[in-house]
């Protein structure tokens, strides 16, 4: 059974930093790309960033360039999202996802094969 478990979300002040983590278990090598989506209050879920075991990665155009960094620890089956200089508009539920390609992070279809339950990030001004 595939499980993606996120952690690291909490409430912070604007300008603060957070590092989200997602640990995968039961996942096959065919789903070798993992990453993050987020859903702000009252809005649709959107891609944030994805990374694959071959090192390829992508960031969504909606993500402020330079403030978010995705990384992974393959040995720990873990993907991270470092978020710096957080702003109130970054407030969202952040979801971990896994798929065989970076396709879900480039477009809304296909959706990722697997989803985590999410971790809440709240940024106050």
Range of helix content: under 10%
Morphology call: globular
Number of helices: 1
Spans of at least 5 consecutive residues whose pLDDT stays below 50 are none
**Strand-and-helix sequence, N→C?**
EEEEEEEEEHEE
User: If you compute it from the alpha carbons, what radius of gyration comes out, rounded to the nearest whole angstrom?
Assistant: 13 Å
Hey, roughly how much beta strand do the residues contain? over 45%
Classification by helices and strands = mainly beta
* Largest sheet report: 7 strands, mixed
Query: Average pLDDT value?
Result: 94
The beta-strand count equals: 11
Alpha-carbon distance between the termini?
A: 40 Å
């Amino acid at each position: 059974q595939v499980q993606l478990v996120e952690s690291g979300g909490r409430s912070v002040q604007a300008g603060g930093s957070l590092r989200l983590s997602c640990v995968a278990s039961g996942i096959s090598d065919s789903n070798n790309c993992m990453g993050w989506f987020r859903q702000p209050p009252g809005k649709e879920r959107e891609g944030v960033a994805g990374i694959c075991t071959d090192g390829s990665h992508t960031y969504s155009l909606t993500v402020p360039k330079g403030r978010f960094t995705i990384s992974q620890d393959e040995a720990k089956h873990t993907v991270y999202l470092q978020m710096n200089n957080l702003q109130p508009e970054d407030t969202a539920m952040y979801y971990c996802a896994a798929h065989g390609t970076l396709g879900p992070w480039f477009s809304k279809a296909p959706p990722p094969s697997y989803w985590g339950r999410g971790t809440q990030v709240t940024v106050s001004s």
